[in-house]
Amino acid sequence: MTELISKVPEGPLELKWSKHKADIKVVSPANKRKMEIIVIGTGLGGASAAASLGELGYNVKVFCISDSPRRAHSIAAQGGINAAKNYQNDNDSIYRLFYDTIKGGDYRSREANVYRLAEVSNNIIDQCVAQGVPFARDYGGLLDNRSFGGAQVSRTFYARGQTGQQLLLGAYAALNRAVSKGQVKSYPRHEMLDLVIINGEAKGIIARNLTNGKIERFGAHAVVLASGGYGNTYFLSTNAMNSNGSAAWQCYKKGAFFANPCFAQIHPTCIPIHGDQQSKLTLMSESLRNDGRIWVPKKLEDAKKLQEGKIKGSQIPEEDRDYYLERRYPAFGNLVPRDVASRAAKERCDAGYGVNNTGKAVFLDFKDAIKRLGKEVVDARYGNLFDMYKEITDVDPHDEPMMIYPAIHYTMGGLWVDYNLMTTIPGLYAIGEANFSDHGGNRLGASALMQGLADGYFILPYTIGDYLAGKFKEPKTDTNAPEFEAAEKAVQAKIDKLMNIKGKKTVDAFHKELGHIMWEYVGMARNEAGLKKAIELIQALKKEFWSNVYVAGETGVFNQELEKALRVADFLEIGELMARDALNRNESCGGHFREEMQTEEGETKRDDVNYMYVAAWEYKGEDKQPELHKEPLKFEFAHVATRNYKD
Amino acid sequence: MNFTLKVWRQRDAKSKGHFETYQVKDISEGTSFLEMMDILNEQLIGEKIDPVAFDKGCHGNQSGPVSFDHDCREGICGACSLYINGRAHGPESGVTTCQLYMRKFKDGSTITIEPWRSRGFPVIKDLVVDRGAYDKILQAGGFISVNTGGVPDANAIPIPKKNADESMDAASCVGCGACAATCKNGSAMLFVAARVSSLALLPQGKVEGARRAKAMVAKMDELGFGACTNTRACEMECPKHITVSHIARLNREFLTAKFKD
């Protein structure tokens, strides 16, 4: 088993990044003009990276699967973005943000990366304001903040309930400016289907032009993957319908290690599932937990009446309500981290206290907030979320408490990267949700936006120079090279194979079935027997997929069924690796809850002696077991302790 | 609930399109409009797999599943874009198609579904159109010219809350294209105005306000969008309630710029 080299610089925590920046090489402006970089994805990570690299003088090609870069799923992030500005004078600091993030991640993230993230967080807010992002402001004209889960300070900057949208529009605007100056070329409706490696280095991609179905080749000196997470493995999630793990998965199959795939985040505040025809789950921002109180009835008979639709939540008197988060975690109350809040909801519902017809819902109540702040203030903070909830459920949260239930939301795992954000394939970088490095076993709210923009604006543009500095004499990559030829043929063969199966089941039917397996056995609570069963079931489903799927339409044209089929083919493999990783990690930490490993109170029980490492998996070939590599996690500065949100 | 769907089918940009009629049955009230489209597509694919075994009375004529743009299904990405019963994003005001629920329709009714129809948005397939023109308009000037790094502290410039809020109202635009698709002139004025106005309301955006307004309007004209004749249809159909007051601000910016020339 090889030990992975993280390339974390020596020295005191707060000097590591400055020292590293001073040590790494830079590329001269004249040489930057000769170099090409491919960026996959246009969410916060991809758009900010592409724009920043273009500004530096590199020739950038940026790809997205949507019809416009602006539609990447970062746009749907609601609540906010963290930064250690300490504008509220509540004793926040870079160190506190770092510490909260490490602790929130249950000590399974890399210390130096997390510190750097906290360090550049303040630059992000400055950058966004300069771009014209209309963050919320107070009457004095200065920026406003709100609190988020896992923190006791107010450090979250926000733009109503549309923070992701506004940050992405800022990055997209920077990207548009770079396009207008000829620094970046944008390729919308293009999907990366393979990575091309020449002499062991990432040199380009094979992409499908989704408008006309043509397979195209693109070469570069380096490839940056910013393609997001793989939460849609579960079919039902808060991810957008087209979000997928395929670009990262192709890189894994070409040799990039995949780290901590089992760490998936289940978000506590989503609108409950209504039926089997549902296509996706809708998130209600975590910011709602600032003022909303989560509860279920104290009495089972009340829960029963709610489940039968005989009474409404508002009819249950105060003394019969169990504000279980405030009861169990008095220090943080409704603002415990996401994994804790999700499991607590599951615990109550499993015990029979669920409040809707499926028994899988809890209340999120604004009665007290409206009483305390007035309807106007509550509407100013959450108005658009209330509207969205009402539109979907036909219930007005002003009158009746919202119903919520946990759903898959984000994946902390991703391609393994070193401190420079480079994967195990030289020249291939992974940023944002596509990598694994910053959130450990659980991501704190308002930190995904922070990480995407930190990587894209302030980290990758520096670290990629260190790699490219040695490459400026290399000519432009020749896309007629045999490696491109072979990769394109393999892609075409895969497509032809899929189209020619002409089986009896639709692509969606397979995806739904996979989703059921994943949620049942690799969901909020996992155990050895269940995970072993999941692996068997997924393997069988994969076999059936490749012999019985029906992909409608033709190849060389616009074909959404084929797009889905290619993604589901990969989800089937990603799901298996997630289960394998969950089986290997015989401890509970963050979002990964192994039923065998819990305290008497039902809290997660980490095993720091045996599992304080990053599990990085190496692809070994079709139907072969992947090989596990470990990167030990060392905590030189943060004090490793059991997470405590009680006192 | 049961519905008769009249859906626009068009093989590609060059082909002539036509309507096909389908039946969907047993749709629950809480189903979203796009989930209903998913159900239709599962039926249409099923009929291709085995017309007898999968017969759900849908009666597709073998054209296969209907293509339509969609992604977040939370009303924020702006990908969905259907013309439903003659209205952009359907009968409800203030929502995108993905946030439209079947309880808003009468059981047993006929629903007509078309793509955006606008010169600026050519059809790619069925209900999918090419909105690349909107990217091009923004590339012409819909940004503040700052590089990454070297910017002042975020609290260095206080901005009146009212201006920040109004800027945010305009910035809520999701770039779906409903405004241009609804406009009888095929004008993208509301889209352009939303961006120009959002940035013009902020001190950091004011600096190049005149240049921005001119460049974006010129690009809009160049790409074949029509002129604004103040019918306010765009405002009616905007899923994000962006008002024509932003067009007034755009006009101010534009005229000031022209006078200075």
Describe the structure.
The complex is a heterodimer of chains A (647) and B (261). Chain A is of the alpha/beta class. Chain A contains 18 helices and 21 strands. Helix content of chain A is 38%, strand content 15%. Chain B is an alpha+beta fold and 261 residues long. Chain B folds into two domains: 123 residues, Beta-grasp domain (Ubiquitin-like (UB roll)), CATH 3.10.20.30; 129 residues, Alpha-helical ferredoxin (Fumarate Reductase Iron-sulfur Protein, Chain B, domain 2), CATH 1.10.1060. In chain B, strands 2-1-5-3-4 form a five-stranded mixed beta sheet. A two-stranded antiparallel sheet of chain B has the order 6-7. In chain B, helix 2 packs antiparallel against helix 7, helix 3 runs antiparallel to helix 5 and helix 5 packs antiparallel against helix 7. Chain B starts with a strand and ends with a helix. The mean pLDDT of chain B is 94.
Any chance you could write out the topology, listing elements then pairs?
The complex is a heterodimer of chains A (647) and B (261).
Chain A: H1 16-23, H2 29-32, E1 36-40, H3 44-56, E2 59-63, E3 81-82, H4 94-104, H5 111-131, E4 156-157, H6 163-180, E5 184-187, E6 190-198, E7 201-209, E8 215-219, E9 222-225, H7 246-253, E10 258-259, E11 264-270, E12 293-297, H8 300-307, E13 321-322, H9 324-328, H10 338-353, E14 362-365, H11 367-373, H12 375-393, E15 402-411, E16 414-415, E17 428-430, H13 448-468, H14 482-501, E18 505-506, H15 507-521, H16 528-548, E19 549-550, H17 560-584, H18 608-611, E20 613-618, E21 627-632
Parallel strand pairs in A: 1-2, 1-9, 2-5, 9-17, 18-19
Antiparallel strand pairs in A: 3-4, 6-7, 7-8, 10-16, 10-20, 11-15, 12-13, 12-14, 14-15, 20-21
Helix pairs in contact in A: 3-6, 3-13, 4-5, 5-13, 11-12, 15-16, 15-17, 16-17
Chain B: E1 3-9, E2 18-24, H1 33-49, E3 83-84, E4 87-88, E5 110-114, E6 123-125, E7 128-129, H2 132-139, H3 161-171, H4 178-182, H5 189-200, H6 203-206, H7 209-222, H8 233-237, H9 245-260
Parallel strand pairs in B: 1-5
Antiparallel strand pairs in B: 1-2, 3-4, 3-5, 6-7
